[in-house]
């Protein structure tokens, strides 16, 4: 039985938490912000996603259950092969960089595109396999949990947080939505123990960021929007300061984007920027384009620094408050549509698409538009389903 997550409640909770932590003028922030326009954007986005989600709930969609024979042996070959290649290429990458990348400061940026491709392929096959295990064997096997732990360590060693969030988050979401009669108490989402886990995860990610910065910089100078003098009597807040600094900077970026584009919107050009990066020649991605708009510092090759605009910030650049409302409406609409699709189809690939959408949509709160990689992974999931499902066609004779 499929029990989708309460996406709307989760999104709104995180959206308010992340934005309000950056908007409210706490004493440990270096400067005060004028928050009126920030609140307007916040309210516009919330209204859009609420109406988009509720709109499709009243539509009856004719979606049938997935049909065909699943070729499990073929999928297992793909699962083990993709993970083997992923771990092998990560190891080779560390060797070529003469050390574990997460421990090498700026060298964590020296990677190879095909390594990342296999990392994400392995992540997708792992999430699909987790759904298969819960639907067929009703629980995770010890072998799967061992491979998941090993895979997580190797992904973390590359120094990037997004792949790890997608991997662990995807498996956790699959675990929560497949109701097979086991661990039902654990699967209750809004409980004190889940809140504690989220707090621990939040603190851990922030501490990793603080550690990486402290390898090469003085954190007090690096996080310029934090007044560390106000933290002398609050040392327990220091581990989460990197994250709070990011949330504050998000709002500072939004204010700058409003100032620069309020009467000069891009009318969708920013939304297609990531897709244009596949064209020959040098193309700026969305976050580099945002860096150009806010006049961020440039890399040695002249490329503007990558700046995360938040979802409402990116949408405002493309079309002001109207674009913010429409963009959030679309997100709410597709969240509910994919939920209906998953509940009707019930196959592990549709479950994985739903999980991937949930994770990436929650990440949009901070990062802005979907990356091109998100759409590539969607195509990969559909391709995997096509390869591993044998469709039986019945010919009806007159």
Automatic annotation (TrEMBL):
The chain crosses the membrane at residues 7-26, 38-56, 77-97, 109-132, 144-160, 166-183, 195-213, 319-337, 349-366, 372-391. The keyword Membrane applies. It comes from the Bacteria. The keyword Transmembrane applies. Keywords: Membrane, Transmembrane, Transmembrane helix. InterPro entries: O_anti_polymase. This is Oligosaccharide repeat unit polymerase. It comes from Mesonia maritima. The lineage of its organism: Bacteria, Pseudomonadati, Bacteroidota, Flavobacteriia, Flavobacteriales.
